[in-house]
Amino acid sequence: MRKYLNSILPVLFHFGTVLMFICALATACTQRPDDSEFIRDMYEKCLYEDYDFLEQHCSRSLLAKLSEAYDYEGDGYAVWEFRSGAQDGPSNEHAVISIEDEGDGWYRYKAIDMGISFTKKIKISHEGGAIMIEDIADDHKLIAPLPSGLDVDDLKDCTVPAAFTSDDFRWMGGNLRMTVYSKDLYDAVEISQMQVGDTLLYTGEPMVIESIEEAHGGLDINGGLENNGCCLAGYEGGTYVARNWDDHATYTELGKAELALADDFVIIDCGEFPTDPVDTIRTGQKLYLESLKDSYRSFFSLNTLVTIENGVITEINRIWIP
Fold first, then answer.
1. What value does the mean pLDDT take over residues 264-292?
2. What is the DSSP letter of 247?
3. Predicted local confidence at residue 152, as pLDDT
4. Is the pLDDT of residue 252 over 60?
5. How confident is the model at residue 10 (pLDDT cuts 50, 70, 90)?
6. E runs forming strands in the chain
């Protein structure tokens, strides 16, 4: 019996060693972090905004890339590279829609950022059981209007498109309540690089670009306005402006504001018809507004500019539009 045990003990030992190795391998596989779950948590929990998270889970080359793309004073990372890149959107929705494994460590994740759909490509590797992000790239670009640079809660020295009615004047307090807008302008360089498959943020809604044609002195996107597309035209300062019907620009609502009226604020007002003379009202502004026809007591972003100096409204200028 002893001889028999001595003969099988090495076999049992070898078998046990193999079994332990298989169990360890299976455990390692089951414990390996799930790439899709990691990507979903990274985006939906906004972990990419945490510099500690980035430095723990991003490769050195990606950290250098994010640092180089950071265009503010001081040191930092361009965390917006994980998002759509839009400054604003139609809602607060922020979620991953889908994650596709493209092989060789690359994944494509489609997500929603402030209600705007976008797609990114992300490369994942594994070091010592930890997930590392090797690279992040645009699958297609999102082309959004340039930031207005305006803070509706702190309007100091600027001229803004605005909308209000004669009822929004508070004559007792000398204030005007209005909705502030910005004209939708796009960077000319981005427009020159625009291609089919990119997404254009137009009138606050994402438009996937299916065609681009030179027409009407500008660019027709997706067949132009006649086919539920849009039109872009060259504008001043290296920008393009989005055009609507009757060649009107498009605008994005920034929010509500209530500002004081200067004691000597001026109303420059067009007539009801294009040939009517322009009125310049320096006194009796309340009486002037109350004497207007009901249909003419509303001011819109398309035709109204409000000039603000040191936080006080100094001029309201309404121009005639078709």
1. 94
2. G
3. 95
4. yes
5. low
6. 94-103, 106-113, 116-127, 130-138, 142-143, 158-165, 169-170, 175-183, 185-187, 199-202, 205-208, 212-215, 218-221, 230-234, 239-243, 251-269, 279-281, 298-299, 304-309, 312-318
